[in-house]
Amino acid sequence: MEDLDAQILKLLAADGRMSFTDLGKATGLSTSAVHQRVKRLEQRGVIKGYGASIDYDQVGKPLTAFISIRPIDPSQPDDSPERLRDITEIESCWSVAGDESYILKVRVATPTDLEDLLARVRAAANVSTRTTIVLSTPYEHRPTS
Amino acid sequence: MEDLDAQILKLLAADGRMSFTDLGKATGLSTSAVHQRVKRLEQRGVIKGYGASIDYDQVGKPLTAFISIRPIDPSQPDDSPERLRDITEIESCWSVAGDESYILKVRVATPTDLEDLLARVRAAANVSTRTTIVLSTPYEHRPTS
DNA sequence: TCTGAAATGAGTGAACA
DNA sequence: TGTTCACTCATTTCAGA
């Protein structure tokens, strides 16, 4: 990882739609040079993708929660992420060390929807759940230098 | 929230660099029409921004963790998010219901860096911490339909 | 790996339905 | 809100250093 690539990554993490022209101005490179570097970073998978961050309060999904799950039968192989992949309310899934095996981040419209979602998670992965409701999000997705 | 706006948001959440031309083809609108809608969604704050998602394993920050914090002195007003804002290793901060008051998502290079970070978090916000290490990330940042 | 030039394609704004 | 058109600017490729 070079210094120039690190600069480009930070700029793109902060503004994923920044143009190659502007990236060039910010880094002192020509448009073509940044273009080549960005394409290479994409091919190597250093840049995994681009996204828009949405205000879910404004689109009818104001309720965010973390669901920690733990297998009911620890003797079985744990393929929870695959079993849960089709549940579209799950935005992220992290495998973690500690009392629980995975943490899910989910987004729903209402408490009733959350109750329904929990039932589907338990049934699909044969797990017990512990849910933490998000009250507000002071900040999120900050570029970690 | 209209159907067309919802489509656009989903497409942009999945690919934040998709061109207005392609968005138009996908939604059946003209380039200008999507352009107008996207600008309006940005102005209203429905689209909060755009970002690149980085593979931090490849840029020397392979260690991700969740830190749950709780005030040591509950009689004091809790402005932890402001006190912690300048710690750049913190990628996200959620206010939550439950035993703890906030959950932080952090990214560092090594366990020693995590130890150091925990000390800084405790000192800056006068909190106790509970840390959960992320072992792997099966998926993350999925567009929640 | 970079630059600069040239071609293609996208972003942007105005006039209008 | 939508479309089309005309203009500007960005993206992409390539030759050369």
TrEMBL record, chains A, B:
Domain of life of the source: Bacteria
GO cellular component: cytosol
GO molecular function: sequence-specific DNA binding
GO BP terms: response to amino acid
Limits of the HTH asnC-type domain: 1-62
InterPro entries (alphabetical): ArsR-like_HTH (IPR011991), AsnC-type_HTH_dom (IPR000485), Dimeric_a/b-barrel (IPR011008), Tscrpt_reg_AsnC-like (IPR019888), Tscrpt_reg_AsnC/Lrp_C (IPR019887), Tscrpt_reg_HTH_AsnC-type_CS (IPR019885), WH-like_DNA-bd_sf (IPR036388), WH_DNA-bd_sf (IPR036390)
Keywords tagged on the record: DNA-binding, Transcription, Transcription regulation
The protein's name: Lrp/AsnC family transcriptional regulator
Source organism per UniProt: Nocardioides iriomotensis
